[in-house]
UniProtKB/TrEMBL annotation:
Residue span, DUF2470 domain: 167-236
GO cellular component, one term: cytoplasm
This protein's name: Pyridoxamine 5'-phosphate oxidase family protein
Transmembrane segments: none
InterPro entries named among the record's database cross-references: CREG_beta-barrel, DUF2470, Haem_oxidase_HugZ-like_sf, Split_barrel_FMN-bd
Pfam families reported in the protein's UniProt record: CREG_beta-barrel (PF13883), DUF2470 (PF10615)
Residue span, CREG-like beta-barrel domain: 9-153
Organism of provenance: Rhodopseudomonas palustris (strain ATCC BAA-98 / CGA009)
């Protein structure tokens, strides 16, 4: 990644956390404490924390249950030399969902990975969230730095009303406004025509996905309830139409 005047480390970190659907998970071997690395699928919590669906039959799950300390690497997967793309290493602890958290985590994960519907309820599978303690970003020459969680996670304080309606809002958007999602993707985010669907909404933006491709639409200001969300979505649509 080449340095640019508008470079923002927190924004880049947030983008990778929201858009990546897979990553390299490092755990500690249960008996020896040796590092063990595996490939995992990911979704994102409304605050941006990675969500994992992992089986107790897998070594990494047994490791996590014995010692929850983990690290996770995400990268841009840019064309050419992969070391020229931005990447982050997230450090923290993998914690299982409490009963009251499970519906939200389950819905967010299935929105990102619809095929998991076929096995998410198997007895050996569980949802985990990585509660991070810090992040190391490498984004090119002179762009290597550490970030604390308050700089890359979304503060959900005061947004309880938005989280309560997120599921119905996503369902409504995908059922009744697919053309608006395409408009956001093509006119605001520079993507090609595709069947883009909304997979999640949080106070800072909206996530779009088509198969494995993902996009992130950042809101110009924070949204905390359904009325503000409706106004913001209309505002963004109006801006997109003016660019056609």
């Amino acid at each position: 990644m080449q340095p640019t005047p508008d470079f923002s480390a927190p924004k880049l970190a947030k983008t990778l956390l929201r858009r990546r659907r897979e990553g390299a998970l490092a755990t500690l071997m249960e008996n020896s404490g040796a590092p063990y690395c595996s490939l995992v699928n990911l979704a994102s919590h409304p605050d941006g924390s990675p969500l994992l669906l992992i089986s107790r039959l897998a070594i990494h799950t047994r490791n996590v249950l014995a010692d929850p300390r983990v690290s996770l690497m995400l990268d841009e997967r840019s064309a050419g030399d992969p070391l020229e793309g931005a990447r982050i290493m997230l450090a923290g602890r993998a914690v299982p969902a409490r009963p009251d958290e499970l519906p939200l985590w389950r819905r967010r994960y299935l929105a990102a990975h619809p095929a998991a519907e076929g096995y998410i309820d198997f007895a050996d599978f569980s949802l985990f969230k990585i509660e991070s303690s810090g992040l190391h970003l490498v984004a090119g020459f002179g762009r290597i730095l550490d970030l604390s969680p308050d700089r890359y996670l979304t503060d959900l304080t005061g947004a309880e009303a938005l989280l309560e309606v997120e599921a119905s809002a996503v369902e409504h958007i995908n059922a009744d406004h697919p053309d608006t999602m395409k408009l956001y993707a093509t006119q605001l985010l520079g993507s090609g025509e595709a069947d883009w669907r909304c997979t999640g909404i949080d106070p800072e933006g909206l996530d779009l996905q088509c198969e494995r491709a993902t996009l992130r639409l950042d809101f110009p200001s924070r949204v905390e309830n359904s009325a503000a969300l409706r106004d913001m979505l209309k505002r963004m649509a109006d801006i997109a139409r003016k660019t056609e």
